[in-house]
Amino acid sequence: MPRIASFLAIASLVLLAGCSADTGKAPATQANADAAHASTSAHATLKATSNSHVSGQLAFVAVDDGVHITGQVNGLKPDSTHGFHLHANGNCQAPDASSAGGHFNPADVPHGHPGTKPHHAGDIPNQHADASGVATVDVVVPNVQLGTGSDTDILGRAVIVHAQPDDYTSQPSGAAGPRIACGVITQG
What we know:
Number of helices: 2
Largest sheet: 9 strands, antiparallel
Helix content: 10-25%
Order of helices and strands: HHEEEEEEEEE
Shape: globular
Strand content: 25-35%
Distance between the termini: 59 Å
């Protein structure tokens, strides 16, 4: 009997030591999984500004080379083209969405076409509405991040739809006209 008791005591100590070993990894919990997901996806509900009927839903997903934006913008004029930008402030409170501030521009560079340099981090290609006034958004915005807390993080910022197309040359905003919809980029 003493041998069995000694064996059980030693086995218990070995098991306890193995359980307390620090592997350097956080335990896999639902909270950790949710936190990881929250930093890689977000959404924005676009709401009309004064004198507009534009609305929409956008999804944002972090990808290797930036953030992929998908969704729809409704209530636009049929067959129309619109400036579409990320703005510095996550605030759509003002009736004209001026509370969203200027284009998101952490590098403090001139405005331009997103396919060329220089350009604001928030410069996105114009979006075109179909014959029913719906723009289907499917674009990757390079060199921005989602939920990282870095200077290029767009979480908590605003996305704006403008009344006219961006000319990509006029400074500082491309002469895209009034802001006709605004949404704040939030986790989820």
